[in-house]
Specification:
Phytyl_CoA_dOase-like
Length: about 325
């Protein structure tokens, strides 16, 4: 679902209504061409710094259909205040040898780019991006956030030929607050197409799909204290407010996933409870994007201490002020 252009002050009433109805919103040309070029150049600079001789060769796994096979080593779990590199599963042969050059082997770079990388940090304030549409702060205000906090920023490289598929999921499973509050900001730095594995969305599913499971750190007293696991969600399964509930699923009928092809520079907003996915990239064209999430940091919203991603010493980054 494409939308009309958002002004600097935030989302238009029509855009806000569309996001609330569908759970996602595409804003074309949210980033200027010069900003896109700057962020791609920064991505390449970061890839140049990767030293595979000292890297643990951590592969990023999305967990598969059950979510049980998710990446969870210390390199991953301690990345909340660092810039780290995670590799594609298919960049290795059956014997575990890397068979792709490093620039074509990285699945993603994360998770503190919004603080440690000046070009990516500038997106939060809108600086160095003349003509930016719908700055993150303006969008957050439009969505009613009181104290939005930024977390899990990352570049995702949907590599040519091997870029892995991501099964249907909701972001609140991984960035859980009680009640759920996560919203994803997903910026295309290259064209995302059906051919190279663009996103697909199940429109309206955020209103009826509950947060049934959560990705958490394993309990050190019960297990080996390392890694992650999926557990049943014992907290709130829907955000605050009216218009949410499993009974609404019947209204959805036989809804199908809708592809979200976008041009470089587009912003896609994604509700934390929205079911979305992407297919494997079997083409010769890569698909680099930048994404981060915000959660509500105000009183009445609890960020669980079992979540895989834990805040740095200074806390998650405040978007306002």
């Amino acid at each position: 679902m494409s939308s009309d252009t958002a002004p600097e002050e935030g989302l238009t009433p029509d855009q806000l209504a569309a996001f609330q109805r569908d759970g996602y919103l595409i804003i074309p040309d949210a980033l200027s061409p010069s900003t896109v070029s700057s962020l791609l150049a920064e991505t390449q600079r970061l890839l140049d710094t990767l030293d595979l001789s000292t890297h643990p060769l951590t592969r990023f796994r999305t967990g598969g259909e059950t979510g049980d096979d998710h990446v969870g080593d210390d390199y991953f779990l301690s990345s909340g205040d660092k810039i780290r590199f995670f590799l594609e599963d298919d960049a290795f042969d059956s014997s575990g040898n890397l068979i792709k050059p490093k620039h074509r082997a990285v699945n993603k770079i994360g998770h503190y780019l919004h603080v440690l990388s000046p070009p990516f940090a500038s997106l939060l304030s809108g600086s160095d991006n003349e003509g930016m549409k719908a700055s993150p702060a303006a969008v957050a205000r439009s969505l009613g956030f009181t104290d939005p906090r930024v977390l899990q920023s990352m570049v995702i490289c949907k590599q040519p030929e091997i870029g892995g598929a991501v099964p249907p999921h909701m972001d609140s499973t991984f960035l859980y607050t009680d009640p759920p509050s996560a919203v994803g900001f997903w910026y295309a730095l290259e064209d995302a197409t059906l051919e190279n594995g663009c996103l697909s969305f199940l429109p309206g599913s955020h209103r009826w799909a509950p947060v049934e499971k959560r990705l958490v750190r394993k309990d050190a007293e019960i297990k080996d204290g390392k890694g992650t696991e999926m557990v049943a969600n014992q907290g709130s399964k829907f955000p605050k407010g009216e218009g949410y509930g499993e009974e609404l699923q019947n209204e959805n009928g036989q809804a199908e996933y809708v592809s979200g092809e976008v041009k470089a520079g587009s912003l896609v907003l994604i509700h934390g409870n929205l079911l979305h996915k992407s297919e494997k990239n079997t083409s010769q064209k890569g698909r680099i994007i930048y994404t981060f999430h915000i959660i509500e940091g105000a009183e009445g919203f609890e960020y669980d201490k079992r979540n895989w991603l834990q805040p740095p010493a200074e806390g998650f980054t405040a978007l306002y002020g």
